[in-house]
Amino acid sequence: MAAFFQKRGKRHQDDVLGSALDFLLANARLVLGVSGAAMLAIATLAVKRLIDRATGPQDEDDAKGDPTGLEDSWKELSLLKATPRRPPRSPPAALSKPLLLPAPSLLAPDQPAGAEPRPSPQLRSPAPMCLTFQEKLLAFERNHVSIPVAQVALAKQLAGDIALELQAHLQNKFPELPFGSLVPGGPLYDGLQAGAADYVRLLAPLVLEPGLWGLVPGVDTVAGDPRCWAVRRTQLEFCSRGSSPWDRFLVGGYLSSRVLLELLRKTLTVAVNWPAIGSLFGCLIRPSVASEDLLLEVQHERLELTVAVLLAVTGLGPEDGLLLAWPLEGLAGNFWLQDLYPAEAARLRALDDRDAGTRRRLLLLLCGVCRGHPALGKLTRAHLTQVVLRLGEEEADWAEEALGERFLQALELLVGSLERASLPCHFNPWVNVLASLRQQEIEDVGYALYRGLQDPEGLLCGWAGQGWLGF
């Protein structure tokens, strides 16, 4: 009797489960289609049999039945894989309509009504790869030192056009004064341009009579400065004063750079029609009034550059180099400043050509790092050139792989020179190029370089420059 009631209860459960399956399959047919509902029915019945045979008590029929019944159930379940799948039919129109969700609130549930909306979380970019100092130095060179070729060509074109216009104006304004050809030059033309601080040099050479003029070294003058040379008028007993057109600029028997600077300054600021000239070249040209140097500020739609007009004395001695009219102070106000840039640039080029070195690239890197630093900006190209020249003569390996090591050596050499407050000029050991810095400036630069040696990558990461020529 107990077995009878057990079988009867089991059949009742089967009837209830079957009714539930019928309801489920009837509704599933609407969504899944006929083939999908069939597959779901087969899977459900197979699983139900497995559960009943594994958990329920065996009846007499099951005990006497085929022992391979469980295997048949698994075969039924394998029909899921054998049955080919048909593409599902499109659901009814009511089910195919998109479900409209309520718009999310701009405010978080726990955020007050008057508060600002919180920013949506952003995906973090993957962590950057660890680079060596050499790789970071080369990346800094590509991003902050290298100059686009098109910008260099445009700057050279503008400088050349300005030189021709100024040459014609000087010849018309002062036909009695023999000026040589105005030739633009400087770091831009030597591949050493690393920032807007480097001007385009526009030399205006004075043609002096060789027999009427002579040079006096700076150490033999009243100024006693080896950088400042005097241009003296000679042969006055045979060629009286007035025989040379440049005699009108004599002060105490010497050709005065200060008087010539004042004459040319008035010419650039008053006599030349720069707006008309700039309109011809598609740019704006304005003479700088605030600076003591003779500067022309050029603004083009693609770049900005500064042209420095330099009165120069050349040809009086092969070893004397170039003398520039510079706004000097004190006893050296009428003297001429010795310019060693052409000799320095030629020496660096010769050293690099000899071993395909990277001395000039090192100079560009140093200039780029220093011009973007608040303290190291006191170091000019003249200071850094002396460091590179000294290293260039001493070290033998100047391959690109050693550029990072040479960069650190240059910083060490600068720190040692600042401690002694002495950095002799490569071509004139009597000249201390650090003499232009005050004591406080030397201490600030030395401290910044010392910290840079402790963390050289910080000098590159903390660069705050604005690019070359305002780009």
Describe the structure.
- With 471 residues, the chain is α+β, with helices and mostly antiparallel strands.
- The chain is 47% helix and 11% strand.
- It has helices at 2-55, 60-64, 69-77, 79-82, 93-96, 133-145, 149-173, 187-190, 257-271, 274-281, 341-355, 359-371, 381-394, 403-420, 439-454, 456-461; strands at 183-185, 200-206, 213-216, 228-233, 250-251, 254-255, 283-287, 295-300, 304-313, 322-324, 336-339.
- The strands form 2 sheets. Strands 1, 2, 3, 4, 7, 8, 9, 10 and 11 form a 9-stranded mixed sheet that branches. A two-stranded antiparallel sheet has the order 5-6.
- Strand 7 (283-287) and strand 8 (295-300) form a beta hairpin.
- Helix 11 (341-355) packs parallel to helix 13.
- The protein is elongated, with a radius of gyration of 44 Å.
Described by the principal axes of the CA atoms, the overall outline is elongated
Sketch the major β-sheet.
9 strands, mixed
Mean pLDDT: 79
Helix content: 40-55%
Helical run tally: 16
Cα radius of gyration in angstroms: 44 Å
Model regions low in confidence, pLDDT < 50 over at least 5 residues: 1-12, 60-70, 73-85, 87-113, 464-471
Throw out a few tags for this protein.
disordered C terminus; 47% helix; two-stranded antiparallel ribbon; 11 strands; disordered N terminus; 471 residues
